[in-house]
Amino acid sequence: MVDFVPKHSAIYHGMVRHRRFTPRSHAFRYRVFMMYFDLDELDDVLAMSPWWSMKHWSFARFSRKDYFGNESLSIKQAVLSEVNSRLGLSLSGSVRMLTNCRYFGFIINPITIYYCFDEHEQLQAMLLEVTNTPWKEKIPYVLKCDPSDQMQRIQFNKAMHVSPFHPMEHFYDWRSNVPNKKLAVHMQNRELVGEQCVFDATLSLTRMTLTSSSMARVLFSYPVMTMKVAFGIYWQALKLWMKKVPFYSHPNSSSTTTK
Question: Of 79, 127, 248, 252, which is most buried with the most CB atoms under 10 A?
Answer without folding.
Answer: 79
